[in-house]
Design a protein that fits this description.
about 80 residues; alpha+beta; about 10% strand; DUF1272; DUF1272 domain-containing protein
Length: about 80
């Protein structure tokens, strides 16, 4: 099963494209930008898990395994 590659930061709404670095996820894929991850001390506010660098996904691979389009920011 592939990562969802959620498109935005759950805390501030910043766009986080699947092919770009700078996204951080916990083990259940809660997703945050680098600035919010740092502000959260690399700890997920939803589940308490550790926030880690999310790997990138190439544009070519996204054709086969598309990134999620479902936004999570509710600000």
């Amino acid at each position: 099963m592939a990562l969802e590659m959620r498109p935005d930061c759950e805390r501030c709404g910043t766009d986080l494209p699947a092919e770009a670095p700078g996204a951080f996820i916990c083990s259940v894929e809660c997703t945050f930008c680098a600035e919010c991850s740092e502000a959260l001390d690399d700890r997920c506010p939803n589940c308490g898990g550790e926030l880690m660098d999310r790997p990138t996904r190439s544009k070519a691979l996204q054709e086969k395994l598309p990134a999620s389009q479902e936004r999570r920011f509710n600000g």
